């Protein structure tokens, strides 16, 4: 399969530039895999499709203000970095733009010197390993001078940082939000639980593996980057109990789906543990850990639309997206949602 097989037409005005005032007032496209039926609903209607005994799996990662603007100390030239993953206490893997200004040994400064870093290595994919120096607590400095890493297709300013966080975020470490979860409110989650649906938490820190574009023509040649995940023993037990009793496992977002597929065995049993995953899911993949998916509408030719195509079929996903465009759904991170059953 070619990357071009996953392209589709999207008018620019359908790319959502800001979140809706109320999280769960977004629209919801419901797709039934059995008869390929499509329903156009509101996100609050999702309760009608979740039954007692089902299990909703959410990713409780928290996005860090991972974008930093600074200078190279010897030349004063400006640059931008995106923190991807913490390797050790003071060392981070990061993307640097422009990369030519970040050679090994280069000293960088951010926030008028509140944070300084030296480039100590260049990875094969072009990202850098930075070693930071600072006085105080790194997270507090980052919170003061860092910027939320909104995707490049969002051009409007986000005044409230928390709108690029899920309401159930807990563990800091992501460079992008698990956007399917942005539609939930605490009240909606309470209603879902009160209806007898179990809610299980996993953690996957969203990094380059999720949002890096595919740069090869043949998707089999694309290499995913590793992302850190954690599935507790309690979560694994809860999910397995739900499945044993006939409940459906519904992943909230592609990050939750990829995590569950990483830790599921061939029988669909979820195993607890933590580590790194580079799982790449595209058509031909047989899902083991999930029965359904809540997800946003994804970029053309991205690994995320390929995952959805693996679940419902390549031709089917392109047809659904065509209908979503015709129905004027809002696309991408701050856009509307899709429920696949």
List keywords for this structure.
Thrombin, subunit H; 2 domains; alpha/beta; 9-stranded mixed sheet; QueA-like; 341 residues; globular; 6-stranded antiparallel barrel
Explain the overall architecture.
This protein is an alpha/beta fold and 341 residues long. It folds into two domains: 242 residues, QueA-like (3-Layer(aba) Sandwich), CATH 3.40.1780; 79 residues, Thrombin, subunit H. The protein contains seven helices and 17 strands. The strands form three sheets. It has a nine-stranded mixed sheet with strand order 2-1-17-16-14-3-12-13-15. A six-stranded antiparallel barrel has the order 5-6-7-10-9-8. Strands 4-11 form a two-stranded parallel sheet. Strand 8 and strand 9 form a beta hairpin. Helix 6 packs across helix 7. The chain starts with 26 loop residues before the first strand and ends with a strand.
CATH architecture of the largest domain: 3-Layer(aba) Sandwich
Helix-strand string: EEEEEEEEEEHEHEHEHEHEEHHE
| Largest sheet properties | 9 strands, mixed
CATH structural class of the largest domain = Alpha Beta
First-to-last CA distance: 25 Å
Rg calculated over all Cα atoms: 20 Å
What's the CATH topology label of the largest domain? QueA-like
Number of strands: 17
Tell me the count of domains.
2
Q: Please give the count of helices.
A: 7
Q: Classify the helix fraction into a percent range.
A: 10-25%
**Mean pLDDT figure:** 96
